[in-house]
Amino acid sequence: MESKENINSAVEEQAEIDAPAFNSDSSKDNSPEEFDPEKAKRRQNLARFTCFLNDDLAVKKIMFQIAPSEIDEYNEDSLVEYSDKLHHGLKDATFYLSRMMDTADSIETKYEKDFLSTFEPLRNKLSEIENDAINTKINNNQLRSFYQSHISNIHSDFVKNVTHDVFAYNIKRKENTQKIGESASSINEILHLVHSYVMRNEDVMESLPVLSKDPNTNNGLYGDEDANNPIAKEIYDGLGKQAEESDVVALKDRTLLIIRDYGHATMVDITENPDGGYDVEYSIPKICSPDKANSLPGVHKVKTQYDSTSGEFQIKNTSDCAKTILDFISRIPTDNDIKPSHNESINQ
Question: Cα angle at 146 between 160 and 60, to 5 degrees?
């Protein structure tokens, strides 16, 4: 595991590399930008957050690359080769996951502190998985079983618990993450929990460079000053008419949203597809109305107003992206859509 000092050094080097881009406006008139410690801290947070996202993608790629195939069980030699590939892949995945946790802790947030203790159960799980790998024999059934149970598996109840209990503006987010972490049993589940805890965290988003603040609401636009992300700006401008407290994060080829009071605090992740259009993933921790929630595009259907859910859909045309997202947000249930239970009706 990399030390926190090494993580800090790595992101500081990245911040230095990015510095000319950040100062591009001031360089036009050849006048140096006056040093602002708050801006410097936020830019460093952005470098760290970007490192976190890159490592997140690295773990996903590793899980795909070390999946067993028919070729790997062709003969004894191929099984030995696959066993080596599996162990090396697990070592790399563990390294990146550990660095993701360290990087999250190095982001200087205003309120949420000590990510390390939050992730402690997950570090213990990584050690257990590594120990189980050592004891796995070079046998086709055992190797396949290990990959499925310790690498790729992700239980539906685990995902449901994360969606329901790990979300923005939740005072028990840290406590819930630690508790859910005790039940994690695979690299995929550990990655999902670490990813969710950081990405569904308003304190992390609001620690990034401030691009714009709405004077009439608590809406903010944060992120990379040089991302060239007009979609994020268009969504941010549109949200001023329908949301009172939201965070929009503009990154290169990616826009993140946390919208408070819609499904309690809905998180939306919009990624530009290399083939054109956008892939949209969302998480709604509080349904409020099953009927309205089940009408959302790509939603995983729910039964009661106490459920949580997630979903995904695609937007084919770039010109339609912001409009489609704003329409999607307007359709997310709010507390006003909650119907009183039978007992509540009687009491009224």
Answer: 55
